[in-house]
Design goal:
single chain; alpha+beta; Uridine Diphospho-n-acetylenolpyruvylglucosamine Reductase, domain 2; Uridine Diphospho-n-acetylenolpyruvylglucosamine Reductase, domain 1; five-stranded antiparallel β-sheet; 20 strands; binds uridine-diphosphate-2(N-acetylglucosaminyl) butyric acid
Length: about 350
C-alpha cells in the first residue's frame, strides 16, 4: 500500500481543478479499506470516487482515499432477470456497455453518465426518463464509525430526485462498496417517452428500437449537448431543476407562458434550471476560465485553469440573478467541498 504525499487531484475530478491532497492512497480491496480507515497517523480522511460530482475549492487537508474496488458478478438469475453485483470503483458507462453486450436491459437510458458505480446511489443518477432507483436492489456500505459492512435495501436508501439517505442523514458516515442492480434478460421495458429520444430514433429511422438503439440515441443526444470532461472540465448539471409549488408555478407561468416545465405531481412542478439560467443571459458566458456551457446552461465548465473558487463564485452569481429575475431559488446538485 503506497501513500503519496502532496499529490495533485487534477486528474481525479472531472472539473479538472488543480488542488492538492495532503496525502493520497488507492483502495483496491475491502481488507485494505479497513486497514486505511484504522490508520491513526491520518486522522482526517476524504473519500473520493469517480470525482464526477464534486467541486474542490481548496487543497484537501486529509488522506484522500480513492475507491478503486473492481468486479462485476451475476448473483442471481431467473429466466427473465439477473441481479448483478458491481463493485463501487467500476466506471458507470463501462457497466452500461457490459450490460448491453450481455443483452441485459435497464441501463440503456443511463448511458454515458460520468462517474463510478459507488456514487450512483448517493445522488440517484438519472437521465432521459430513468433513474438509478428503477433498477436498484441494494447496496453494501462500510460504516465509518464501526467499520462494519451494512446492507441497504431500496427503502433504506430513501431515493428522491437527485437525492438519497446518503446525501442526508447518512452523509459522511458510509463508503458504498458495491451496488446490486436488477436487469432484464427479455421483455425489456423500453423508455422512449423522453422527447429527445423519440426524435433521435425517428431521425435514425428506427421503428422497433433495441436496448442498444436506445443507448446509441442517448449517447448521440448527450454528445450533442454535454461537454466531454476529458476535453472540457465539467460536472454535468451543476444545479438541480427547482421543484416549486402549484401556487408559485401558476404565478410563474402567467408571467412566462413560454417556459418549459414538467408536472411532478398534482401539487408540484419542475422548471428546467437550464432555461432559467439561459434567460438570465449566462449561456456561453465566460469569466476568466470559469464558464457556462454554450449548448446547455445547466453545465458549468472549466476552460483550463479555473480554480474551484472561481467556479463557485460564478455559481453564486447565477443563483442570485435567477432569484432576482424569477423569484425561484436554484441549488447545486454538485457536492461543493469547502
Ligand atoms: N433548456 C434551455 N436552455 C438550456 C438548457 C435547457 O432552455 O441551456 C431547456 C430545454 O430546451 C428543455 C429543458 O430546458 O426544454 C430541459 O432540458 P434537457 O432536456 O437538456 O434537460 P435538463 O432538465 O436540463 C436534466 C438532467 C440531466 C439529464 C437530462 C435528460 C438535472 C439537474 N439534469 O437536464 O442530467 O441528462 O435532464 O434527462 O435533472 C446531470 O445530472 O448531470 C445531467 C446531465
Amino acid at each position: 500500500m503506497e501513500i503519496k504525499e502532496n499529490t495533485s487531484l487534477k486528474d481525479y475530478n472531472t472539473f479538472g481543478i488543480d488542488v492538492k491532497a495532503h496525502s493520497f492512497v488507492e483502495i483496491n480491496g475491502l481488507a485494505q479499506l479497513q486497514r486505511v480507515l484504522e490508520l491513526q497517523a491520518y486522522p482526517n480522511k476524504f473519500i473520493l470516487s469517480g470525482g464526477s460530482n464534486i467541486l474542490l475549492t481548496q487543497d484537501v487537508d486529509a488522506l484522500v482515499m480513492h475507491i478503486n474496488l473492481k468486479g462485476i458478478s451475476v448473483v442471481e438469475e431467473t429466466e427473465n432477470e439477473v441481479q448483478v453485483k458491481v463493485m463501487a470503483g467500476e466506471n458507470w458507462h463501462e457497466l452500461v456497455l457490459w450490460s448491453l453486450d450481455k443483452g441485459y436491459g435497464g441501463l440503456e437510458n443511463l448511458s454515458l453518465i460520468p462517474g463510478n458505480v459507488g456514487t450512483a446511489p448517493i445522488q440517484n443518477i438519472g437521465a432521459y426518463g430513468v433513474e438509478l432507483k428503477d433498477v436498484f436492489v441494494s447496496c453494501a456500505a462500510m460504516e465509518l464509525a464501526t467499520m462494519e459492512l451494512i446492507a441497504f435495501d431500496h427503502e433504506a436508501c430513501k431515493f428522491g430526485y437527485r437525492d438519497s439517505y446518503f446525501k442526508n442523514e447518512g452523509k459522511g458516515k458510509f463508503i458504498i462498496t458495491s451496488v446490486t442492480l436488477r436487469l432484464t434478460k427479455k421483455d425489456h421495458q423500453l423508455n422512449t417517452g423522453y422527447g429527445a429520444i423519440e426524435g433521435e430514433l425517428k431521425q435514425k429511422g428506427v421503428v422497433y428500437p433495441s436496448i442498444r438503439d436506445i443507448s446509441d440515441a442517448v449517447i448521440s443526444i448527450r454528445q450533442s449537448k454535454l461537454p466531454d470532461p476529458k476535453k472540457l472540465g465539467n460536472s454535468g448539471s451543476f444545479f438541480k431543476n427547482p421543484v416549486i409549488s402549484k401556487n408559485t408555478f401558476e404565478k410563474f407561468q402567467k408571467k412566462h407562458p413560454e417556459a418549459p416545465f414538467y408536472k411532478v405531481d398534482k401539487n408540484q412542478y419542475k422548471i428546467p434550471a437550464g432555461w432559467l439560467i439561459e434567460q438570465c443571459g449566462f449561456k456561453g458566458a465566460r469569466f476568466g476560465d470559469a464558464g457556462v456551457h454554450e449548448k446547455q446552461a445547466l453545465v458549468l465548465v472549466n476552460h483550463g485553469n479555473a480554480s474551484g473558487q472561481e467556479i463557485l463564485e460564478l455559481a453564486k452569481k447565477i443563483q442570485s440573478e435567477v432569484s432576482n429575475k424569477f423569484k425561484i431559488n436554484i441549488s447545486p446538485e454538485v457536492n461543493i467541498i469547502k
